[in-house]
């Protein structure tokens, strides 16, 4: 049995217009089981957390309005989702899954949330298909319970982790690192502890060289005792929204760099899958599956 915990949160319903991008949450577990990268015992069903775990990083007024379906039309448009009770349940379940992943990573070294990576959610509002910030909540949970003293968030989704950066702007115990498309969403970027904006068309070689130069230095300087990794595959050249030019092999090498460093340094890591919007679902599923395959080879 692999020492990897999975938190599938794909079963919760979404509006019809958003179902294709979410198809990966059904297909990815099936692929991992089919090829033997994971077994049924590796999966756990995520559960909503206590409110206190959410309110460490979210404003109580915003959270109550979200729970009760009282967001304004403008706020709903900013999130990209029409509100529903099922959507709210899905969001708090994803967040609870990432907190549980943090607990399991402490025990097993690594844990995955097949959903998660809702890095555009701010303390008091949602944006960009993100209503509640799961990695921020899990980082705050670790700190509150004394399970970590310094957390590094490695956000390699093609979009800047603006919500995460804003939430932890004045929290010295969390270091936010975002390497993203410089001209991509959001138009107004927040200030992470380290931002590396990339030009459109960035290739495997350019991307990997910059990451290989940056991440070892960060580990040495920040000295984290826990890492969150947002492994978005919207960096692929096939992605409709990404505008970078990474191949599937380059994306896998990115995962090898990040996870290999965490493994060598003995750092527990939680991986959330983040974005992926290629026209072909196989490009999305295979790129995400590579992240799990890399981890399975390291944490045997």
TrEMBL record:
This protein's UniProt keywords: Hydrolase
GO molecular function, one term: histone deacetylase activity
UniProt cross-references to InterPro entries, sorted A to Z: HDAC_classIV, HDACs, His_deacetylse_dom, His_deacetylse_dom_sf, Ureohydrolase_dom_sf
Entry superkingdom: Bacteria
Pfam families listed in its UniProt record: Hist_deacetyl
CDD domains for this protein: HDAC_classIV
Biological process according to GO: epigenetic regulation of gene expression
Histone deacetylase domain location: 24-281
Similarity comment: Belongs to the histone deacetylase family.
Protein name in the entry: Histone deacetylase
């Amino acid at each position: 049995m692999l020492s990897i915990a999975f938190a599938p949160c794909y079963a919760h319903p979404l509006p019809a217009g958003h179902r294709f991008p979410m198809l990966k949450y059904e297909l990815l577990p099936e692929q991992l089981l089919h090829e033997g990268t994971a077994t049924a015992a590796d999966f756990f069903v995520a559960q909503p957390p206590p409110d206190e775990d959410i309110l460490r990083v979210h404003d109580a007024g915003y959270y109550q309005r979200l729970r009760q379906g009282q967001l304004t039309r403008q706020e709903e448009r900013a999130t990209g989702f029409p509100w529903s009770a099922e959507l709210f349940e899905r969001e708090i379940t994803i967040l609870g899954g990432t907190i549980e992943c943090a607990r399991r990573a402490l025990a097993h070294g690594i844990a995955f949330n097949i959903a998660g990576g809702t890095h555009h959610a701010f303390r008091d509002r949602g944006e960009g298909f993100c209503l509640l910030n799961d990695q921020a909540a899990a980082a705050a949970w670790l700190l509150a319970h004394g399970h970590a003293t310094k957390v590094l968030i490695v956000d390699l989704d093609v979009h800047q982790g603006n919500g995460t950066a804003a939430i932890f702007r004045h929290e010295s115990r969390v270091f936010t690192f975002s390497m993203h498309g410089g001209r991509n969403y959001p138009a107004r970027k927040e200030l992470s502890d380290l931002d590396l904006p990339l030009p459109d068309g960035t290739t495997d070689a350019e991307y990997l060289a910059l990451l290989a130069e940056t991440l070892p230095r960060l580990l040495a300087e920040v000295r984290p005792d826990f890492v969150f990794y947002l492994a978005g595959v919207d960096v692929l050249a096939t992605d409709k929204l990404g505008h970078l030019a990474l191949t599937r092999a380059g994306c896998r090498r990115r995962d090898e760099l990040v996870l290999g460093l965490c493994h060598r340094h003995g750092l527990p890591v939680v991986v959330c899958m983040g974005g992926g919007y290629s026209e072909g679902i196989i490009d999305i599923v295979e790129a995400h599956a590579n992240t799990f395959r890399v981890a399975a080879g390291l944490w045997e």
